[in-house]
Amino acid sequence: MPVAQSSGVLSFEDARRVVEEHASSLSPRETESVDLLSSSARVLAEPVLADRDLPPFPRSTRDGYAVRSQDVTRTPATLEVIGEIKAGETPDKIPARISPGQAVSIMTGAPVPDGADAVVMVEYTSQKGSEVEIARPVSAGENVVPRAAEARSGSVLVEKGERLTDAAIALAASAGRATLPVYKRPRIAVLTTGDEIVPIDATPGPTQIRNSNSYSLSVQIRQTGGDPVLLGIALDEPRQLRSMIEQGLKADLLLMTGGVSMGRYDLVEQVLAELKAEFFFTGAKIQPGRPVVFGRCGESDKARTYFFGLPGNPVSTMVTFELFARPMLEALAGMSPRKLRFVYARLKSEIKVKTGLKRFLPAILSGEFEDSQVELVPWQGSGDVAATARANCYIVIPPEQEIFAAGEFVPILLR
Ligand code: AMP
Ligand code: MG
């Protein structure tokens, strides 16, 4: 598949498409086998197949009476009860067939016998001795799930490349799988840059800042299915920066934070250019995160490693990971590609912004039941992690609109 050759500053959508295209070109990874429970949030490496029909028999979804629907088109109708079937009933206790005028008492999860095509809920019946009076008609198929209606034996229950959720793991369990093949976690190098950045166990001087980005990124990497490899902090000095970048390029993906803005000491792009990196974009028209850089570096085709230069402001780092690094990491983790989708929520109070950038602003989605509303968290800009920590979503503001009235529906990206 041809990969778009773009560079410079792109719109958000174009930048995202460039990343998606490169992500789709990544090849599958090594696999390992893990216990069913440990497979939670991992990515499935081979499809899980149904080892039998689901359900394996026509299953009653109610407690009641299995009947021939044509016997109860006119109600009340009286039928002869010829037996009782509970869930898990041994086959020899199940009547071979229900004949006209007959019914069988049946429980939820029990097999509906031949001849019967519907189940009347027990609430609409009254049994006296061996006769039951049916008060309401049922249509054919009501309260019965036909054999194999959910899945046929041998069909795919969970696709390869899916992240294993509760429902996927339930399906694997129902197919008797105690272990699952999953992709190995990709190793993601994290390199922080900045003369002012100090490790969290150091006492910062008056103008120094503790390294928080390596930690937020590590959490995002773990949540996406990668293994973070922390390379530490590079000074804003080309030689050390270069050797640390070279080290980072040995991983499956390199994430750098800081040093990609326009300042005199923002050296990341310069050093990457010296290393003959290809740049796919060197900025996106977004806020926070405008200076984000995406590219690839390495001597041979095989040894080429993708990298992101994420802006150092902590919220920019988090947001640009979500928007751009995540799809690459997901692909390295073996996940099938998926599109970024926003959901809509009603705005609680008016928003005014300047036009020109697509904005992802920290916000709180609150309210109850169908009455949810979203509002911006007051913040001091893209360095304000404290505000972002209070947020549970980002409001997505398109670049061309200035005012959003209270009550309007706006797109949001959940955190
Ligand atoms: P930069 O992108 O290098 O211009 O940095 C932008 C802002 O983010 C500056 O205020 C930096 O001090 C801050 N910053 C950069 N890296 C980190 C980090 N690892 N942890 C916390 N803040 C950072
Ligand atoms: Mg810096």
Salient structural properties:
disordered N terminus; 7 helices; alpha/beta; six-stranded mixed β-sheet; 30 strands; binds adenosine monophosphate; binds magnesium ion; 415 residues; 32% strand
Task: Present the secondary structure layout.
Layout lengths: L8 E2 L1 H13 L6 E5 L12 E2 L9 E2 L3 E4 L9 E9 L16 E5 L11 E4 L3 E4 L2 E4 L9 E2 L10 E3 L7 H9 L4 E5 L3 E7 L3 E2 L10 E2 L2 H12 L2 E8 L3 H11 L4 E5 L10 H7 L3 E4 L1 E2 L1 E2 L5 E5 L7 E6 L3 H19 L10 E5 L3 E2 L5 E11 L2 E6 L8 H6 L2 E5 L5 E2 L4 E6 L1
Parallel strand pairs: 1-20, 6-7, 14-17, 14-18, 15-16, 18-23, 21-26, 24-27
Antiparallel strand pairs: 2-13, 3-12, 4-11, 5-7, 5-8, 6-10, 9-10, 19-22, 22-23, 24-30, 25-29, 26-27, 26-28, 28-30
Adenosine monophosphate binds next to helix 3.
Question: Mind explaining what this structure looks like?
Answer:
This protein is of the alpha/beta class and 415 residues long. The chain contains 7 helices and 30 strands. It has helices at residues 12-24, 166-174, 213-224, 238-248, 268-274, 314-332, 385-390, and strands at 9-10, 31-35, 48-49, 59-60, 64-67, 77-85, 102-106, 118-121, 125-128, 131-134, 144-145, 156-158, 179-183, 187-193, 197-198, 209-210, 227-234, 253-257, 278-281, 283-284, 286-287, 293-297, 305-310, 343-347, 351-352, 358-368, 371-376, 393-397, 403-404, 409-414. The strands form 9 sheets. It has a 6-stranded mixed sheet, with no helix packed on it. Helix 1 runs parallel beside helix 6 (314-332) and helix 3 runs parallel beside helix 6 (314-332). It is elongated. Magnesium ion (MG) is lined by residues 193-194, 258-259, 312.
